[in-house]
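agent: user wants the structure for Ion-translocating oxidoreductase complex subunit B from Candidatus Dactylopiibacterium carminicum. delegating to structure tool.
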Amino acid sequence: MLSALIVMAGLAILIGAVLGFAALKFKVEGDPLVEKIDAILPQTQCGQCGFPGCKPYATAIANGEADINQCPPGGDDGIRKLADLLGREYKPLNAENGTEKPKAVAFIHEESCIGCTLCLQACPVDAIAGAAKQMHTIISGLCTGCELCVAPCPVDCISMEPVTETVDTWKWRYPVFQLQPQGGRAA
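agent: tool returned. relaying tokens verbatim.
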């Protein structure tokens, strides 16, 4: 009985390893053009372009289903980069999608927060920490400034605070990389 269980467990591990290898071996890579377009987009995941996030918008641009001028957070600079990449004519930002604004992050005025969790549900990047009926706070290093948490707040305790570009904040919309000390590896 015990040996049968051991054999079955070993077989399950073997099958899992084979399936895992097959998944790695046959991994389908994404469209390189979509990846290049997505790299230009600001990764706010705000939906102002009419798509549920930056990657779906990038896919639509690559497929010729969307104009390059629909992203307010990417602004004029993003439109110019997309036009250059795609060899398309520059178009000014489509005002129907919003206006270009300075970089900002959400701020919760914690003394007013009632812990309703509506902001947690609205945040596309999980930049809000808190629990039901408890105070919430923004993890500013993760906040993309999409503003999606502002409207659902029933007590208007969330505001957008401008981010001034400094040595510490210049990378706010890019992945955070650890600097490695000279002669060693990052801890």
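agent: one observation worth passing along. The beta strands are 104-108, 128-129, 137-138, 158-162.
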